[in-house]
Design brief:
The complex is a heterotrimer. By secondary structure, chain B is mainly α. Chain B has helices at residues 2-22, 24-39, 41-58, 60-63, 95-131, 133-147, 151-161, 166-193, 196-203, 208-245, 256-262, 272-299, 301-304. Chain C is an alpha/beta fold. The chains are: A mainly alpha, B mainly alpha, C alpha/beta.
Chain lengths: 335, 305, 337
């Protein structure tokens, strides 16, 4: 099949799924037993005010038309207002989104680079030290709870050694000018080097914690994939052609071994978005994950709905991109 | 009289021998699996860890030296010592006892989530794979919708929607986990549905439900069990995460994730409240992961020869 | 000493083992083989006799869990068994080239076919010339010329991926790749076994034509006696890790000496014969616990007492026609039993 028709089909699928996502989130947020009106007005409000508020929030309409209202709003980018901040949810989301993107991107890059390198070395130098180290490192990566490891690292690197900060995106004293919302990028653009440094030191621990599990998964798959590829006939042909070992590994083995890894990266990104929730909570990172957790705990249901939908959206788009990349990388898939 | 009974015994014995003979290939295969199991160090270590874990859970009340929920504010926040290997928390409770009692909570979490998610997964998957066509499309789209959310986020949303309790957290995670088993069951159902012997059975008049129950179901169980073992680690981590965020077990239940969260405000000077339950989680998850790796190696056809 | 048997290739006392879960497979038990420049040697035998292992050993392509435990592999003036990887790489793909049994699987699935051939040419030129004068375009020219020589249309073929090729086309590509460096020796490991019968004949005749032009020596591994007889000048019969008989095609076919060779030739059904199909009694031995002495002795109709204790060496005998090469490893033909 042509690559373009493949993309088209997947896009349609994604839209259908997103629609379902909206419906589910709507249903889930309507199950919340806590009365949002009571949360806004307080417990002793007179019945008339309660009814008025109900009407304002549209809660007195039949469920189905509430759903339609909601869907209509979403298409216009209106997710309702946060019950806590009283601002449009979309504004809240836009404020916190860049921090999550910064963390997610830095973590996935960390995971990809370290993971593929470890997996590659592990396979090529099988059963030697680097292999054992990498395998132990990886199995710990998928076994150690991220939230716990984060706290332990804070204990060591902040409380005991004082090398790294314990939370936040940047120091209180460095006040970055906000252009894109991505602290590192903004600092580079405006040339505020102290902000850049502050941003980087604050990014180190969260990136490691968030990226560790993905690094482990990628390394394991890379190792398995590489070992599989190295046994294939075409590697023997490459050796028979007298190519130096480095070329055989990098040009012939690696390109083939990466294919399964690319598919995993999409899934891993989803895991990152989940993990971001925990990491942002531990490191007080001002991102979308922490926003959702706080909204859940304060029963701010429009915020929860909006945040969850956004994350699902990001996840779907990333998966779509990865699927396309996969089809582009492996010509056998296009057939 | 004696003759009949000895006759009957003879018949019983030879019937049993016949039964074994028919199943010889299966028994041989099983014996071979056991042999490989013993030879794979990973699988062995994992099995040992999990057996210990299950034993501790079974005998927890006997093993915990102190009461896990009784508070004693006069002796709060004591460092680990011989009497209290894991120290005391901010309410004077023995952390070691809490961790031990927590094993029971973990076991119940694992068991209930497994059962619920496998049942839902089997139903959805087998129906989708067996009937195919529009039923398959609809069920698969629903599955895709559930899969469009990162797992923890969806579980969190469900857990919060249903009010944060341990039971609801379990339900929430099950509502997210079933998709994995649905996919597997569907693949098996599709494979079996096109087999010639299914045609034959249908020609003799077997109904769809019978076929699904007695033919598709048994074949789907084994890949699902394997997948379950490999996913166990993730399930435990998800449950602990919900506990950590306050969306799962509520105090004073000694769920490990919740205890780690408790210790967070005391991290600087009283690190033991956070450290030890977290380590417990790590060890159990590690055990399941080692076991899962070992199983995967054993099932690998290249190594199975 | 043994070095003087063949001026192109002389394998002496080659032993290869594979260390597997089931035990140590003693795959090659002292293989003796030799060839001169421009000659064609066919190595025949049943599956598992070690002929592929021998072929792979020449260029030291045996990988874990296999290893060469002893012996020498003289190629021209150098012992390949003792060369470093770097030195080996200067011979692989250049002086010695190899083609394999399943051609589609032997090509890199994510690289275009033309690029894979060019890679070979680049590698060869770079080790020959010290400078980087060669143009990318010059390499392409050579690649296209080679594709033409193997009967493929370069315009259509050079941009295809291996999974888009048929077996026959893929084998032609492999031949183009192997011969692009004008090797002195081409090792062909069952090149036609995985192809249709009609394609087999085409590939063999193509090979015949091409190697005749360049005077390339060919080491052909095959389980089909007929193919070896047609294509080669000399034949080496292998059984369970040893060469049991070696000689010119005529001498072996007119006067097979080793009981195993006789059995093999008898087992080939001929249209004119009306008697029962003869098969060799017994089965191929398990090489983790091979028979003592001569490995064929359990199945041999002419067993002597020493056959189960001593291993017979490959010794020269009278050939038919006289003057041809003929060697047998069997106590029946050795005067000092």
């Amino acid at each position: 099949m042509e690559l373009s028709s493949f993309i088209f089909k997947r896009l349609i699928l994604m839209i259908v799924v997103i629609f379902g996502v909206l419906v589910i989130v709507f249903v889930v947020t309507r199950i919340i037993p806590a009365d949002p009106v009571g949360a806004i007005l307080g417990g002793n409000a007179p019945p008339a005010a309660v009814d008025e508020m109900r009407h304002q929030l549209g809660l007195d309409k039949p469920i189905f038309s509430q759903l339609l209202d909601y869907l209509g709003g979403v298409l216009h980018g209106n997710f309702g207002n946060s019950l806590v901040s009283n601002r449009p949810v979309i504004t809240d989301i836009m404020e916190y989104l860049p921090a999550t993107i910064e963390l997610a991107v830095s973590s996935i890059l960390f995971a990809i680079i370290l993971g593929t390198t470890l997996g590659l070395l592990s396979a090529v130098f099988r059963n030697r030290f680097i292999d054992h180290f990498s395998r132990i490192f990886s199995i710990l990566g998928i076994s150690l709870p991220g939230f716990w490891l984060g706290l332990i690292l804070i204990l060591f690197f902040y409380y005991r050694l004082g090398w790294l900060p314990s939370g936040g995106q940047y120091d209180m004293f460095a006040s970055p000018t906000r252009i894109t919302g991505l602290v590192l990028l903004d600092a580079i653009i405006t040339g505020e080097w102290n902000v850049l440094l502050s941003g980087i030191t604050h990014l180190i621990l969260p990136t490691f914690i968030l990226g560790y599990a993905s690094t482990a998964t990628i390394a394991r798959i890379m190792r398995a994939s590489m070992l599989d590829v190295l046994h294939q006939n075409y590697i023997r042909t490459a050796r028979a052609k007298g190519l130096p070992k480095k070329t055989v590994i990098l040009r012939h083995a690696l390109r083939n071994a990466l294919i399964p890894v690319v598919t995993v990266i999409g899934l891993e990104f989803g895991g990152l978005l989940s993990g971001a929730v925990l990491t942002e909570t531990i490191f007080a990172w001002p991102g979308l994950g922490r926003y959702i957790v706080n909204s859940l705990l304060t029963l701010d249901y429009p915020a929860v709905a909006g945040g969850t939908i956004f994350i699902a959206l990001i996840y779907s788009v990333v998966n779509l991109v990865v699927d396309i990349l996969y089809a582009a990388l492996d010509p056998r898939m296009r057939a | 009289m004696g003759k009949t009974s000895s006759d009957g015994k003879m018949k019983g014995q030879s019937a049993f021998r016949e039964f074994l003979r028919e199943r010889k290939p299966m028994l041989d295969d099983f014996r071979h699996t056991l042999y490989l199991w013993k030879k794979t160090p990973l699988a062995l270590i994992g099995t040992v860890i999990i057996c210990l874990f299950l034993l501790v859970a079974l005998f927890a009340p006997l093993l915990a030296p102190y009461n896990a929920v009784a508070t004693d504010l006069s002796r709060k926040l004591q460092a680990p010592s011989a009497a209290h290997p894991f120290g005391l928390d901010q309410f004077g409770r023995d952390v070691f006892s809490r961790v031990i009692m927590g094993t029971r909570i973990e076991v119940s979490i694992i068991v209930v989530i497994s059962v619920i998610s496998i049942v839902i997964g089997l139903v959805v998957g087998i129906v989708a794979g067996y009937f195919g066509g529009i039923v398959d499309e609809i069920l698969m789209r629903i599955t895709d919708i559930f899969l469009a959310f990162p797992r923890l986020v969806l579980a969190m949303a469900f857990a919060a929607a249903l009010r944060p309790t341990l039971t609801n957290a379990i339900v929430a995670i099950s509502l997210v986990e079933w998709t994995v088993y649905a996919r597997l069951a569907r693949a098996e159902a599709m494979k079996i549905r096109s087999q010639p012997y299914i045609e034959a059975i249908r020609a003799v008049g077997a109904g769809n439900i019978k076929i699904m129950l007695f033919h598709v179901l048994p074949m789907s169980i084994s890949p699902i069990i394997v997948q379950l073992t490999m996913r166990m680690g993730t399930i435990i981590l998800t449950a602990a995460s919900l506990g950590f965020l306050g969306l799962g077990a509520q105090p004073p239940l000694p769920e490990w994730g919740a205890i780690v969260s408790d210790g967070r405000s005391y991290l600087m000077n009283n690190w033991w409240i956070t450290a030890f339950p977290g380590m417990a989680i790590a060890v159990i998850v590690l055990g399941f992961n080692l076991l899962g790796d070992g199983i995967r190696d054993i099932l690998d056809p290249r190594i199975r020869r | 000493m043994e070095h003087q048997r063949g001026d192109l290739l002389d394998i002496s006392g080659l032993r290869v083992v594979f260390n597997t879960y089931a035990g140590q497979v003693k795959a090659l038990n002292g293989v003796e083989l030799w060839m001169n420049q421009g000659e064609r040697l066919g190595v025949v035998g049943e599956t598992g006799c070690g002929k592929s292992v021998t072929a792979l050993s020449v260029m030291r392509l045996i990988e874990e869990p296999g290893e060469i435990t002893s012996g020498s592999i003289w190629f021209e003036a150098r012992d390949l068994a003792r060369l470093s990887e770097n030195d080996l790489n200067s011979i692989r793909g250049k002086d010695i080239a190899m083609i394999f049994q399943e051609p589609v699987a032997a090509l890199n699935p994510v690289m275009k076919v033309g690029a894979q051939i060019i890679e070979n040419i680049e590698c060869q030129r770079r080790s020959a010339d010290a400078g980087h004068g060669e143009d990318k375009r010059a390499f392409s020219e050579v690649m296209r010329e080679m594709l033409g020589k193997v009967g493929l249309d370069w315009q259509r073929t050079e941009n295809l991926y291996p999974n888009e090729l048929s077996g026959g086309m893929a084998q032609r590509v492999m031949i183009a790749m192997a011969l692009s460096s004008r090797p002195k020796l081409l090792i062909a490991d069952e090149p036609t076994s995985a192809l249709d019968v009609t394609i087999q004949a085409q590939i063999l005749s193509l090979l015949n034509k091409l190697v005749r032009e360049t005077q390339t020596a060919v080491l052909l591994i095959t389980h089909a006696m007929g193919v070896a007889a047609q294509f080669c000048d000399f034949i080496a019969v292998m059984y369970a890790g040893n060469v049991v008989e070696y000689g010119s095609v005529q001498s072996i076919f007119r006067n097979p000496l080793h009981p195993y060779t006789k059995g093999l030739l008898n087992a080939v059904p001929k249209i004119a014969r009306t008697d029962e199909l003869q098969s060799i009694p017994g089965i191929v031995p398990d090489l983790t616990a091979p028979p003592s002495g001569c490995r064929f002795h359990p199945r041999c109709p002419c067993r002597n007492p020493e056959c189960d204790t001593l291993e017979p060496a490959l010794r020269s005998v009278e050939a038919e026609p006289a003057g041809d090469r003929h060697h047998v490893a069997c106590f029946l033909y050795q005067n000092n039993a």
